[in-house]
Structure formats: C-alpha cells, structure tokens
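thread from #wetlab-drylab

HS: before we spend reagent money on co-crystallization trials with A1CAB, can we at least see a predicted complex? here's what I'd submit
DV: go for it
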Amino acid sequence: MNKRIGFIGCGQMGRAMIQGMIDAGLVKAEDIAATALSDETIDFVTDEYGIQISNDNKRLARESDLLFLAIKPYVYQGVIQEIKDEVRDDTVVVTIAAGITLDAMKEAFGRNVKVIRSMPNTPSLVGAGMSVLCPNDFVANQELAEVMEVFESFGEAEVVEEKLMDAVPSVSGSSPAFIYMLIEAMADTAVQQGFPREKAYKIVSQAVEGAAKMVKETGKHPGELKDAVCTPGGTTISGVTKLEEVGFRNAIIQGMTACTDRSKELSQGKK
Ligand SMILES: NC(=O)C1=CN([C@@H]2O[C@H](COP(=O)(O)OP(=O)(O)OC[C@H]3O[C@@H](n4cnc5c(N)ncnc54)[C@H](OP(=O)(O)O)[C@@H]3O)[C@@H](O)[C@H]2O)C=CC1
Ligand SMILES: O=C(O)[C@@H]1CCC=N1
C-alpha cells in the first residue's frame, strides 16, 4: 500500500493493528509512523516494532494519508485541538474509540474532515481481528476501500450504519475480554480437576477456537451444533442444564447490554 499510515497513540490497540498489518505484508515497518507520550513507549516501540515514533503529533498529522487516532476517548478533544489545523483535507482520519461519534469529530475539527469511525479488537495482533467501520459522508468509496484493506490485512472487517456503532464494542471491541473470562473460568475448573495450568489453557482455548470455526465454516445454527454435542443422558446435557439453571445466557446478555449502555453514555458525552 502506498499510503502514509500514521498512528497517534501506540498502546495496546495501536500496536496490535501495526503488528497485524506488518505481519500481513501490507506495509513495511519503516513506512508506518506513530506518536506516544512517554519516552518509555517511544523507546520500547522503536526497539520492538522498528517503526518511526516520536511525540510530534502535529508533524504526524501533516504527513499521514491515513491517520489513526489510537488514543483513549478522554484524550481525543485535546489531541484534536492540537492537530486540527495540520490534518489535510485529503487525509482520512480513523477513530477507534468507543463513543466518539462522527458528529463529535466534526464539532471537534470545526470543519468537514474525512472520518471513519471504527471499532477494532486486540486479536488483530495475531491476524484474527474483527473490526467494524462507519464512514462519514466525505469519505469516497475508494478511500473506504483502502481503509478496509488495512483492517482486512489483520482480520475481518464490516461496514455498518452509525446507529449500530454503540452496540459494536459488545460484539467486537470488548467481546474478547468476555471470551478470555470464559477461557479463564474453564481453565480454572480444569486445574481444580487436576489438569496442569498450561495444558488446561491449551485444551480450552483450542476448544473455543474450534467451536467458533464450526459456527463460521459450517454455517449451521449454534443451537444445532450444540444439540449435536449433547448425547441423550450424557455429560454435555448435564452441563447445559446446569448452565441454564444458573443463567449463563442471561449473564452474557446483561454483560453485553451494560457494555452497549456505557458506549451510549460515552457517545452522549458522559464521563
Ligand atoms: N484495548 C482494546 O482492546 C481496544 C481499544 N480500543 C480503543 O483504542 C484506544 C486506545 O486504547 P488502548 O490502546 O487500549 O490504550 P493504551 O493506553 O494502551 O494506549 C494509548 C496510547 O496513547 C498514547 N497517548 C496518550 N496521550 C497521547 C497524546 N496526547 N499524544 C499522543 N499519544 C498519546 C499513549 O502513550 P504512552 O504509551 O506514552 O502513555 C499510548 O501509547 C481507546 O480509545 C480504546 O477505546 C478499541 C478497541 C479495542
Ligand atoms: O473498554 C473500552 O472502552 C475499549 C473499547 C473496546 C475495548 N476497549
């Protein structure tokens, strides 16, 4: 890709995306530039990733064709104030924060900048990301296609209407945390039942990955796949019955709803 890609912020999510696109061969490390606040991060990223990194947000904003804002939501206002006059009219700005709306971006910039609101997730680090995007009216189809190419280099990407963006963290950005909790709980149980910890994580995470692959590759309804595991009078149905009794599915629904509610609060400017 012959676009200059810049990341303002180079923490967990920025690094996951950068590593993902380098591993995919989309860009060379030396063609990516980033900024961070601390010397500690700047030194670490220089050593580990080999990208250009400094604390000069203005220069990065001026020089980037695709500018990712990989900073925490509460830092957005300050950083946009700093860079808004440096961002060129042909630059595409990509947000990755929950609750930063396209309207809020327009207001912060005080003009019509090309903006794509996105929500990636950290599995991008290993090429298994799931990102959801929503462009504003000033992004041309070709520009959206280029940004999709970036996101698809480290996983899968979908475009949705902005009204769905507050629900997106619960299904992509935040959802890996819920799955890690599931894996941890399953592995803890395995350890309690005598498995060594490392074997427990290997077995459980492979089973989780396999189940996800079955849903994706067979196209079958998850309920049908679940039924195929349940032998009459067997072990699985005993586990399924107990999980229903303790409200497993309801717990997931409530967790995801709380996640979406928090995104809505952030979108409304609540701290
Ligand atoms: N973590 C995740 O799983 C996901 C995160 N996101 C979103 O990604 C964004 C970043 O999150 P995450 O990567 O986890 O956060 P981190 O805290 O790991 O990274 C934030 C980065 O921003 C840098 N930074 C802070 N202030 C400035 C500034 N003024 N100028 C330049 N750089 C600055 C920090 O520098 P330093 O390192 O020096 O402190 C750090 O490198 C958030 O908006 C979050 O909502 C979206 C999807 C998933
Ligand atoms: O927790 C958060 O707010 C961010 C957005 C999705 C994942 N991390």
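DV: DSSP finds twelve helices and eight strands in the chain.
HS: ok that's useful, forwarding to the group
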